[in-house]
């Protein structure tokens, strides 16, 4: 029991770390970016069909429990994710060997180009969740993501905890980031969102759903976000070997040197196990190639 508690605590630390020290440093820049655009009124949407006052705004922090024998990870059960178009694993394809690769991009550390090269080599699709500042500073990389068939999802403007924001501010974070993506790159942002720091509530999940977003959590994660305390390529390779499972959604960070070094081997090993790399647009669809 102590071992299990320790494991969950460690994973919780990992989730909190998704905030990135560097992201904190650029929040003032993000605020300035947003202020340039937020004189426009954030509109309500036609999908606002649920009275948000009836939904809990108690902050939840995403956690998961790793399973042995390559079974799908277990995760929080406080909220029925399916009610809100939210996912952490492909529950519809428990018998199908598909993995959905996802990367969180708060800032650039020189590894994303290598990651894209490796994905291209393996013809593997991935999702990149980007902040507005990431788009601003890396327009060509974001364009390349889209040109090469990857998805670009919403990681908000300022990477703030959604349950701490008003309904208007959450909408502003998502709409402004998506509009900026279109303006800066010419490409529409894909309607997927990853809540900053893995923090959410029933209210925030509903707001995202009302805006047409699917919320994407994760079923695999490790401490790769601290650029000064990297786990090493061997650790990443071994982690995937031990915990891969059907329908997995791994969380990786683009700033990680370990991820960049390990990715080619990780993908090769998964291919040797019979896995394909799925497009999140097919998430939850049975037997979709």
The gross shape turns out to be globular
Radius of gyration: 18 Å
Oligomer: single chain
End-to-end Cα distance: 40 Å
| Poorly predicted runs of 5 or more residues | 1-21, 35-46
Helix percent reads 25-40%
Structural class: alpha/beta
Strand order of the largest sheet: 8-7-6-12
Please, how many helices? 10
Mean pLDDT: 87
Give your account of this protein's structure.
Residues 1-21 and 35-46 have low confidence and may be disordered. 39% of the residues lie in helices and 12% in strands. The protein contains 10 helices and 13 strands. It has helices spanning 2-17, 21-25, 27-37, 112-122, 132-137, 139-147, 167-185, 202-210, 233-243, 257-272, and strands at residues 60-61, 64-65, 74-75, 86-87, 98-99, 101-105, 126-130, 151-154, 192-193, 199-200, 214-216, 251-253, 276-277. It has a 4-stranded parallel sheet. It has a 3-stranded parallel sheet with strand order 4-11-9. It is globular and about 50 Å long. It has 289 residues and is α/β, with parallel strands linked by helices.
Short description:
The protein is α/β, with parallel strands linked by helices and about 290 residues long. The protein has ten helices and 13 strands.
Give the SSE layout.
Layout: H1 2-17, H2 21-25, H3 27-37, E1 60-61, E2 64-65, E3 74-75, E4 86-87, E5 98-99, E6 101-105, H4 112-122, E7 126-130, H5 132-137, H6 139-147, E8 151-154, H7 167-185, E9 192-193, E10 199-200, H8 202-210, E11 214-216, H9 233-243, E12 251-253, H10 257-272, E13 276-277
Helix pairs in contact: 4-10, 9-10
Keywords:
289 residues; alpha/beta; four-stranded parallel sheet; three-stranded parallel sheet; 13 strands; 12% strand
């Amino acid at each position: 029991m102590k071992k299990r508690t320790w494991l969950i605590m460690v994973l919780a630390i990992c989730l909190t770390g998704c905030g990135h020290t560097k992201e904190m440093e650029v929040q003032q820049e993000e605020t300035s970016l947003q202020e340039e655009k937020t004189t426009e009124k954030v509109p309500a949407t036609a999908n606002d069909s649920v009275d948000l006052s009836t939904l809990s705004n108690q902050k939840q922090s995403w956690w998961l429990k790793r399973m042995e024998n390559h079974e799908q990870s277990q995760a929080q059960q406080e909220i029925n994710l399916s009610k809100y178009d939210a996912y952490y694993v492909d529950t519809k394809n428990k018998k199908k060997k598909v993995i959905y690769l996802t990367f969180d991009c708060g800032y650039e550390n020189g590894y994303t180009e290598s990651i894209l090269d490796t994905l291209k080599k393996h013809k593997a699709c991935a999702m990149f969740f980007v902040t507005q500042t990431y788009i601003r500073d890396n327009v060509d990389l974001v364009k390349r993501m889209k040109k090469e068939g990857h998805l670009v999802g919403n990681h908000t403007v300022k990477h703030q905890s959604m349950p701490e924001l008003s309904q208007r501010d959450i909408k502003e974070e998502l709409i402004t980031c998506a509009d900026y993506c279109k303006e800066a790159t010419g490409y529409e942002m894909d309607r997927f969102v990853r809540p900053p720091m893995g923090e959410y509530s029933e209210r925030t999940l509903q707001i995202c759903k009302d805006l047409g977003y699917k919320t994407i959590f994760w079923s695999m994660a490790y401490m790769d976000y601290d650029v000064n305390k990297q786990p090493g390529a061997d650790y990443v390779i071994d982690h995937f070997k031990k915990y891969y499972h059907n329908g997995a959604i791994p969380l990786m960070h683009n700033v990680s040197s370990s991820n960049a070094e390990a990715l080619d081997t990780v993908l090769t090993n998964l291919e040797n196990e019979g896995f394909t790399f799925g497009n999140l647009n097919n998430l939850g669809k049975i037997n979709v190639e």
